[in-house]
Amino acid sequence: MSQNVVCCIRYVIDPYKQADFEEYARTWLTIIPLMGGELLGYFMPHEGTNNVALAMIGFECLASYETYRGRLRQDAAAMANFRFAQEKTFILEETRTFLRAVKKT
């Protein structure tokens, strides 16, 4: 798949629940590709700020992203992972930014 758009998800997480967030992220590693996203990765805090994590997922276009979101809402494993996050309350804030790559001219 050609990535023309990358969805960058910025999470503010509870630094005392990093293990829960990592379990949540690891679950997405198999779900996202099945639903049509090109997973570039989930990234955990390592040094410095201890409460910010990122995910980067590539899509052909914004319409592909919308199709992907619809698939997620119909998938039992995806919905279970969303419920896990709600029950454990390790995500304090979540924002999405849509990016495009700078290409050589």
Please give the domain count.
1
Give the mean pLDDT.
96
> Can you tell me the CATH class?
Alpha Beta
Helix fraction by DSSP (H/I, runs of at least 4): 40-55%
Report strand %: 25-35%
Radius of gyration over all CA atoms, rounded: 14 Å
Strand order, sheet with most strands: 2-3-1-4
- Quote the CATH topology: Alpha-Beta Plaits
The CATH architecture assignment turns out to be 2-Layer Sandwich
In summary, what is this structure?
The protein is an alpha+beta fold. Helices cover 42% and strands 30% of the residues.
How does this structure look, described?
The protein is α+β, with helices and mostly antiparallel strands and 105 residues long. It has one domain: Alpha-Beta Plaits (2-Layer Sandwich). It contains 3 helices and 4 strands. The chain has a 4-stranded antiparallel β-sheet. A hairpin with an 8-residue loop joins strand 2 and strand 3 (52-59). Helix 1 runs antiparallel to helix 3.
Features:
globular; 4-stranded antiparallel β-sheet; 4 strands; alpha+beta; 3 helices; 105 residues; 30% strand
Question: How are the SSEs ordered, and which strands pair?
Answer:
Elements: E1 5-13, H1 18-35, E2 38-43, E3 52-59, H2 62-74, H3 76-88, E4 91-99
Antiparallel strand pairs: 1-3, 1-4, 2-3
Helix pairs in contact: 1-3
